Amino acid sequence: MTNRRRFIGIGALTALALLAGCTGGAGGDDSAAGDFSGDVKGEITVLTNRTDLVTTKLPEYAKKFEVKYPGTKVTFEGVTNYEQDVTTQLSGGDYGDVLLIPNTVAVDQLGQFFEPLGTVDELKGKYRFIDEKAYDGKVYGLSLGGVANGFVVNKRVFAQAGVTAPPKTPEEFLAALKAVAATGATPFYTNYKDGWPLSFFNSQRAILNDPKVNENFPADAQPWQPGKLQHITDGLLFDIVKQGLSEKDPLTTNWEGSKPMLGTGKVASMLLGSWAVPQMRDAATAAGSNPDDIAFWPFPHQTGGKFHARIEGDYKGAVSKNSANKATAKAWLEWFVTESGFAADQQAIPTAVGQPLPKALEDFTATGVELLELPAAAANSGKEDQIIKESEIDLAGPIYRQKLVDIARGAAKGDKESYFAELNKRWSAAQSTVMK
Q1: Which range (8-17, 234-243, 423-432) has the least confidence?
Q2: pTM of the model as a whole
Q3: Residue 115: CB partners within 8 Å, gap ≥ 6?
């Protein structure tokens, strides 16, 4: 994919307010699964953010589906500004038959807009990532593929610097970046200007190997204390920039331009999802470099002597509550997830349990990293989002980390510990209000 959507985009707060009073969808459904009775035939419209595939690859998948289910027709509607535009469509009630669930939809609103596909207990043996868009035990969306989190690296550049295996600690990683700097390459690229890549410092919770981390995180009043998760992850970002191991002028970074830079070795590393590996390899090939130079390494922290990396689902496909052809819509969604080959084509983790990992992630696991799915919070469901809103710390966004970078490079007042103390104070005050 061209970029990511791990965080709520611009205008999301307005969108959330819009949804709160929305009447476009039907009321919640108490049944474990929606009514998908009827024959698989007729036309459906599928909304997608993959505007690059609407006239190329997606129609190829549709033809295969239409062969399996004669009398069906699948039409795609590409949406460039997906989060904002589809949120508006939800409020109007007309949003196709199958669509990707916008991140603006709160979990307790899922039943208002989408048909339940079954229970978590029923589906967990068949699909990965099902609890990520589930509520009250019901599943409302199936991921189109999963990703792991870690560093996309140009391993040729690291090898030139004498580093041939993933560093095991932040200190080792910083030492490796210093060695890379001596080769003339930019050791790490923040993509500060685009902003969204900085959110991947919030995607490293698996490094603690704690299956209850999402449950426990909102209960922690000071996550930027030394030794805790945010101090480890955000602290590494600060130290990289403070030690001059990132691009010289973060105000001029460019996401599209950064891909050939990493592909050719002008840049050595970025913190992203595994989805970026094929993009960087394509950029290397287009620039006449070796795509095999691109690899994926775990975050430099070990628990119990092992690396751990989170795997999570990408956008979740769902069946519209207002679809007039729910039988065909559900058949398409299940076929697309299990039989189309889309995940393999995208080098994504297959949603269907038992299907093989893509080559890039086979190499990733060969580094000794354990891949973990982290269950969503149960008792504290929604609390973290409330603390984020109350504290005005965009944990999954770029703003406070851009300030962190500014402090580290001397463009804003303060230092690492003073800023972390401020974040702890704001978070603690909000946490006290929300959790009382």
Answers
A1: 8-17
A2: 0.81
A3: 29, 33, 34, 35, 36, 140, 318, 319, 320, 321, 323, 326, 330
